[in-house]
């Protein structure tokens, strides 16, 4: 029997499944719940336990981790007679690793406190590859004591783990992260089309650019997507569209101008409107190709 905290994991998508599996590998007993039967089968095959409901998953859990797409889904699984707050035990720690609005995280923390449940918002960056390799960047918001208690568990999921401030701070930093990533991908996509239309060896060009000041984690992670036009989703355009809405709204609230970010948000929205929402966010390249009259689409 493990002496480690019992974990309930809600949401086993592209990111959630490998993250839950990394906890199992680290020795944590994990009980999972999600709506997709195949994801539950995957969890069971990797040593986890399967629950038939949120109530069943969280009833005996010391730590509850949620990883769902957006604020409405967090609210749906947290509140109501069938939700987490109605069934988690007092003293449990709820770690929401979804990317949602800062205000949703603040509201959840307040509602949970009334039930004696502690909360951290702890969104992540690093995409599917980072989740698989357990090298995610985790930005947390909440009380220091709760963060300290959660840190050993978070170290099984990520490499850079930082408390950024009180409740909602993790989501604010994640919004900034998504702004930087989107602008970076867009810049890389524009460079790729420029290089190809100029007749340059793209692979060689990206190698040398990656070794200089233009190098970035985005370029290193997405270089193969650009060169092969492989846009299978690691992080979908649909989700980045949602995140750009979050950062745009939050920036407006605090009075911060996002001149470049606002343009890129519209380019992400345009790509989604053209039917590419299910593709990886590196598919911003397709938008640049269309604008340039240069496309490799089949």
From TrEMBL:
GO terms for molecular function: 2-hydroxy-3-oxopropionate reductase activity; NAD binding; NADP binding. Keywords: NAD, Oxidoreductase. NCBIfam families: tartro_sem_red (TIGR01505). This is 2-hydroxy-3-oxopropionate reductase. Residues 168-286 form the 3-hydroxyisobutyrate dehydrogenase-like NAD-binding domain. Belongs to the HIBADH-related family. Signal peptide: none annotated. Residues 6-164 form the 6-phosphogluconate dehydrogenase NADP-binding domain. InterPro entries: 6-PGluconate_DH-like_C_sf (IPR008927), 6PGD_dom2 (IPR013328), 6PGDH_NADP-bd (IPR006115), HIBADH-like_NADP-bd (IPR029154), HIBADH-related (IPR015815), NAD(P)-bd_dom_sf (IPR036291), Tartro_sem_red (IPR006398). The active site is at 174. It holds the Pfam family NAD_binding_11. GO terms for biological process: glyoxylate metabolic process.
């Amino acid at each position: 029997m493990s002496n480690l905290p019992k974990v309930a994991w809600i949401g086993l998508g592209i990111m959630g499944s490998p993250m839950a599996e990394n906890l199992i590998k680290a020795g944590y007993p994990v009980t999972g719940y999600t709506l997709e039967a195949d994801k539950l089968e995957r969890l069971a095959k990797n040593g986890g336990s399967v629950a038939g409901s949120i109530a069943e998953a969280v009833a005996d859990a010391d730590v509850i981790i949620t990883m769902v797409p957006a604020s409405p889904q967090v609210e749906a699984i947290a509140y109501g007679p069938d939700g987490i707050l109605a069934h988690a035990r007092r003293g449990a720690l709820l770690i929401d690793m979804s990317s949602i609005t800062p205000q949703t995280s603040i509201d959840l923390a307040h509602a949970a406190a009334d039930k004696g449940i502690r909360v951290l918002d702890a969104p992540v960056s690093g995409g599917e590859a980072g989740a698989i390799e357990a090298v995610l960047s985790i930005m947390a918001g909440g009380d220091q004591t709760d963060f300290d208690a959660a840190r050993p568990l978070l170290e099984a999921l990520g490499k850079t783990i930082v408390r950024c401030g009180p409740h909602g701070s993790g989501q604010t930093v994640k919004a900034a992260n998504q702004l930087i990533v989107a602008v970076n991908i867009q810049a890389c996509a524009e460079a790729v089309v420029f290089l190809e239309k100029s007749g340059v060896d793209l692979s060689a060009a990206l190698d040398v650019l990656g070794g200089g000041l233009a190098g970035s984690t985005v370029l290193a992670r997405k270089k193969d997507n650009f060169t092969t036009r492989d846009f299978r989703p690691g992080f979908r355009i649909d989700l980045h569209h949602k995140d750009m809405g979050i950062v745009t709204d939050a920036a407006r609230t605090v009075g911060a101008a996002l001149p470049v970010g606002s343009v890129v948000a519209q380019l992400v929205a345009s790509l989604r409107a053209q039917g590419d929402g299910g593709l990886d966010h590196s598919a911003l390249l397709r938008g640049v190709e269309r604008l340039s009259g240069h496309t490799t689409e089949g």
